[in-house]
């Protein structure tokens, strides 16, 4: 019969080793000594050194220990995986919160900037009454009034719209729709809310047009952006 080493059954723990060693010691007629002595005996022992009636028990104990070790390793791997998943989830959650906070902060900043632009435009429009009324106005004079009433960064957008709508003719009339004035208010009577002289005073028309663009598109540049995509505003 070949001698099969007990180590071949991977007796990995002191408990299993001690058990085998104790059996080997008893089988050889030795008295049971210290755990260290017993483990040493087990280390050199083979299945052939164990009485035939106990060999099955030794093998069972060894296989049980292997199963326990495998279970422990599996538990450790599962714990490590769970910890890694939790770490990734926490990191993603933190990133999502940061992105949401950044998005909210940007939206609030943009809203404040739009409100400042709108307020600046409104403040400028209130100065329309300071212009002395005249019997007629040239294009250059009308544009000069607009420059004084509009914020500097909004004039070009306003001018682009007026160029397309009326060519800076404050008496321009659309025969088919009835739209009137620099910004082609439809109907022209809407501009009466800015002043009773809306038919003849470009400052009044500019005031109304500026208020309209601010309320509907937040600014003349907002209105111009819409106009470019739709060719109306």
Automatic annotation (TrEMBL):
> What InterPro entries does the entry give?
Lysozyme-like_dom_sf, Transglycosylase_SLT_dom_1
Which SUPFAM superfamilies does the UniProt entry name for this protein? Lysozyme-like
Listed Gene3D superfamilies = 1.10.530.10
What top-level branch of life does the organism fall under?
A: Bacteria
Q: Where is the Transglycosylase SLT domain?
A: 157-221
Q: Where is the composition biased (Low complexity)?
A: 79-93
> Composition bias, kind Basic and acidic residues: at what positions?
94-125
Q: Where is this region: Disordered?
A: 79-127
Pfam families on file: SLT
Identify the stretch annotated as signal peptide in this record: none
Protein name per UniProt: Transglycosylase SLT domain-containing protein
| Origin species | Streptomyces chrestomyceticus
Q: What is the lineage of its organism?
A: Bacteria, Bacillati, Actinomycetota, Actinomycetes, Kitasatosporales
